[in-house]
Design a protein that fits this description.
heterodimer; A: alpha/beta; six-stranded mixed β-sheet; 22% helix; B: alpha/beta; four-stranded mixed β-sheet; three-stranded mixed β-sheet; 1 helix; 9 strands
Chain lengths: 298, 130
Amino acid sequence: MTRPTLDRREFLALASLGGGAVFASGLYGCATPAAAGAEDFFFVQLSDSHWGFEGPPNPDARGTLPKAVAAVNALSVPPDFIVFTGDLTHTTDDPRERRERMAQFRDIVSGLKVQERHFLPGEHDASLDHGKAFQEFFGPTHYTFDHKGLHFIVLDNVSDPAARLGDEQLQWLRGHLATLPRDTRLVVLTHRPLFDLAPQWDWATRDGEQAVALLMPFADVTVFYGHIHQEHHHMTGHIAHHAARSLIFPLPAPLSAPRRLPLPWNPEHPYEGLGFRGIQARAATPALALTELPVVRG
Amino acid sequence: MRPPLAPAAGRRQFCARLAGLAGLAAAGALAGDALAQAPVRVIRISARRFVFTPGTVRLKLGEPVQLELTTEDVPMGFSVPDFKVRQDIVPGTTQTLRLQPDKAGEFVFLCDVFCGSGHETMNGSLVVEA
């Protein structure tokens, strides 16, 4: 089925929802022709809602996620699907409370009009029980799926509390990539950055370099992640990494402060620094266009 | 003039010389080990959710030290990214980590094994004085 094509002008117009900054990536310099059958589409990335968090950094902690759901539902063109890149819930030592938070999160996002949703865990969801509760609610923590010419690979670098993908998952990734043509357009979804963004703030994956090395032979790879609660863009060689804003509180720029404490809530500009991202995959070019969107109109 | 050695005696002497050389080598190794294990300052650091005690550790530039790491409650990690050293800490055990700082300044050490809500601020300061 072919859905109405969203041209670039229309897509950028989505930013008018709240004047969100537009980042149009031309990151590849690669002329790989689009795969046969590929067509334009866009999807939404939501991240780090930390459902269950309470505190001054977000006095509307229980309201922000529902607002984000409403904002996504208000998009003039619905996304093909939605990905949620981890820390759905805020951690708790109580296994029953953890499941309660996951149930509440699932109920809220069930209000999204888009039926296709993909989830992956963050360390707050999975590190204290090695992903057990997450899997009960949302299924496997690493998997793949395809959509209109793009091949998506979901990696789990949080179920190990030491922030490792681990030998078993790396072996799985190696074996899976071996089955793919090198011109496959890859999108990798993960929670923590796969590169050493700021190990001093635990913003890294201990064996992420091995995953990046496995991905490097592919000409067209983009990684979307969460964890750092802010928009951030980085290149390792030709591989682009994009961090998403959070839905609970923003954090400082990497190593810009003595501690990675939440940025204080600004009553003059509520929800400042929070938001979600629309990503357009264009069939005619391998570049993906990103649009950062606020939770509420400014 | 020394009488020629009988073949068996020659083998014994050869073996004795080898043993002597081996002994020397062993002595050298022991000396090396002794040097390697020369007393170094021991610094004990205890972890518990979500603090390290002490929170600030002062070292001299080039001073070899042995960190003795324990955790009072849950599994933790101790990492000093600027020196590329780290160690898992398991409850009920004492883990050692040798460190010889080759640069002066103030560096972060942190828990790099997620240990709960508060993990994000579980860090300390390693001050290396020139």
